[in-house]
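Why do we care about 3D structure at all? Because function follows from shape, and shape follows, mostly, from sequence. That is the central idea of this module. The next example makes it concrete: a single protein chain, its amino acid sequence, and then its structure expressed as tokens.
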Amino acid sequence: MSINRLPPPKRAEVIREFIKASSIVYVIMAVVGFEICWWYHQNVKALLGPMNYEVRLTLGIVCAATFFLYICQRYMEIQFPSYKNFKKSLAAIFSGVNLFGAAWLALLSSVAEEMLFRGALQPFLGIWFTSVLFGLLHLDSEGNVSVWTAWAVLAGVILGAVVNVTGSLWPAIVIHFVVNFIGIRGLSKIDLNPALVHDTSTR
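And the structure:
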């Protein structure tokens, strides 16, 4: 059931609880990642300090990577009905999130996931295994590996490569933020059809 179909007071309460719960999870992820980087890798200053990489080249990398991930996401939505239907199931949750809520969730998720996966785990596990773990964080609504999981693995590889090239988490955080923000805002514009929300057919 879409949040927008609930009475306004109940809708606001559900949205607040969802954002609160999500915030707690992301803060924990960020803290765990930061602690590993601080105490074990001892690379927090390098990852989060001033960048030494050329600014214009960094901007080019950020724009190119963001555009590529967006195009891949759109392509998967067109080619795989199961991915489009999964987005409809997400829209039933995110449809009531406003602009500020979308920006807040996108910021928290991008900082937390980049700190944990690219900052803390990638030096241990390398790009590919870290990206697979990142993908497994993005299962479908029934907890199964899906097209969305494959897209998240691809995103993890690209974000990991960006961190390796630039030596900083900031470009990856910006890319992650923009992709997530566009995605969350886009979910609020999806025309929900109950028949499709529960259609989990794959292709």
